[in-house]
Amino acid sequence: MRDLVEYLAEATGVEVVIDQTAGRTTIEALRHAPTLDLVWMCGYPTVSLISAGRMSHAIVGAPVFAGHGGPIYHAVIVTRESGPLSLGAALETRLAVNEVESWSGFLGLQAHVERAFPGRWFADQAVTGSHRASLAALADGTCDVASVDVTVWEHALAERPEEVAGLRVIDRTVDWPAPPFSLNSKLKPGTRRSFTEALHAIGPAEIASLDGVVPTGLDLYQDVMPIPSHLGLRRTEA
Fold first, then answer.
1. Binning pLDDT at 50, 70 and 90, where does residue 152 land?
2. Element of type H or E holding 65
3. What does the angle CA 10 – CA 16 – CA 22 come to, to the nearest 5 degrees?
4. CB 125 within 8 A of CB 119
5. Which pLDDT value is given to residue 1?
6. What sections of 126-236 are H helices per DSSP?
């Protein structure tokens, strides 16, 4: 993230600071994101807030993660080496959930399971607080299976292999649009234009983990990531 902050500051000539008060959970993001100028977070809370009229931002781009070939991502379903061999078998075990508001860790998994095994769900579940904590719960035997953002899984394999030793992937979800960048409509037009152009100019030479940022808008996400009813948000009509 620091590389992205430094790049944007240099490209726009505007001081860019990470808001440490925004928190790390989706619920915290739902509270704080509307106050920020530039937001990069899971498509689900972004779409939820914009569609419900709770955030005056516009989606301007979607990242192309290195090696993914387009502005997409998915979740991998992970267990221990000695764990269940398939998703069907995993439904008899305990699921580690990073957050019930997480798309890749829970809501997208619900859709995936419903397509494959209508009406079924895991025997038990526990909320861990993060994808990394879910992987730790698998490693220590607290839980048996977890749905993890593929970019988190790939980063762990590359940077923290000891944390995922003894774990393996047994399934994956469909592809979803990658977490979008959105800009506050209250920014001055020149500032919005500078940040939009800087984001669209990103490539591997600027940010090693990104192959680019593709221009896009809200329509890419709305039908794929509907607003769950338990959040009490309603979509506003244009």
1. very high
2. strand 57-65
3. 150
4. no
5. 55
6. 131-139, 150-159, 161-164, 189-200, 219-222
pLDDT tens string 83-142: 999 999 999 999 999 999 889 999 999 999 999 999 999 999 999 999 999 999 999 999
Q: So where are the chain's domains?
A: 2-68+177-231, 75-172
CATH for the stretch 2-68+177-231: 3.40.190.10
Q: Are both 2-68+177-231 and 75-172 of the same fold?
A: yes
Please, which residues bridge with residue 95 across strands? 125, 145
**220 vs 61: CA distance, rounded Å:** 10
Q: What is the pLDDT of residues 33-44, one digit of tens each?
A: 888 999 998 888
* CA angle centred on 67, ends 62 and 68, rounded to 5°: 45
CATH architecture assigned to 75-172: 3-Layer(aba) Sandwich (3.40)
